[in-house]
């Protein structure tokens, strides 16, 4: 039975899927046995990103998704390529994307390969959950990201940003002028998520982030290690390293959880708290006798890892790329600062101010369009389904190339690769065209949190410093799960007080 299942998983099902799609005219590059097109993709990306870009140019699709550019020219807007033994349909038609993320979201989920590849990293937390489990988990954590709860984080965000600005001012006083912004933003967003969702001191938070980053890097190579049957059970150096990092992260998280539980057990507090971790622990406690509950300690740990990961790097990248864009577009920097000064009037930004920062909002959107932290959105058909005119067989992975859609001249016009926040002045772009936070029921749960955080940090930063891009900055976006500046972003700061 096991050998038949393995044979079916690695050979029969992918073949059946390929046949169904070929009959509908969807083709793609020829796959190699077991490894599919992995080597083609790895080789093309290694070549296109081998050098830094010669100028600060936002035309980055050929660099970051060279395989997409080549195969879409050859096979059209829909094509199939193979990630090991997993066939992936690449889908760039906005109407179909809208349908997939919206109406068809209940029959789509995460693929086996994705779940297996991130098992030791974020486990079965919300990002990787499917079906009923996903629905249940989303329902539990959603209140932490809505309404008054969301608004209540603004004060922490201001406090953490003030701390960062003060440390920059101290550095400036001691004669430093150049700052690598990506590291500062990572530290700041890590502080904010640790404080708001886990009420944890930054030392422990830092340790967790450090270990999670190492785990993330290792897991990013998972598809190369998982295409051989049984490879995840082999005690290889790769597997051993992952397991030991996982153990260490989980030990640190358990310390945080235990200290919350102790607080309740010795009567110091009456509940586990109202932040994300508190909500999860309260839910587990309330339902401990229920037979339907799916929440257990391991799942809470997975959820913590998921939110530590999803809640800081993406926002840090949004901030980093936005500062790079403003540093290289002084007119926009000047206009947005004038808006901030007018709206906030020398006070720290409050919730009431944020909705009035229209130009800042346009700049943030344009930054998310040009440098969407998540370059692709992966989905898998959990059942046979119809998508537009296509019959999609169960088990087919569908990849939405967000970066390519955001840079498409057909969708955005001739200036698609230019920084032009004005395009967001008149209307909001939805409908599968502007999807930095995905869309439909399975969109980013932290979208409101991220935008609020980005507006507060940028407004405070702009009102304290004027900045230009440093001569040492080398423009070299690369993808390591998210779009990152390979050598960081160096800017020269001038404080307004001087
Ligand atoms: C600029 C910042 C952010 C961007 C661009 C972003 C982007 C995304 C995208 C594209 C997805 C969908 C992934 C997919 O379906 O494959 C997603 C999901 C998710 N994001 Fe974010 N995110 C950001 C910030 C945050 C923050 C601040 C948090 C938490 C505090 C967060 C937590 C999550 C979680 C838990 C999911 C999974 C939701 C689900 O599957 O139901 N994200 N994010």
Automatic annotation (TrEMBL):
This is Cytokinin hydroxylase-like. GO terms for molecular function: heme binding; iron ion binding; monooxygenase activity; oxidoreductase activity, acting on paired donors, with incorporation or reduction of molecular oxygen. Belongs to the cytochrome P450 family. It is found in: Membrane. Its main location: membrane. The gene is LOC111482203. One of its GO terms (cellular component) is membrane. It is a single-pass membrane protein.
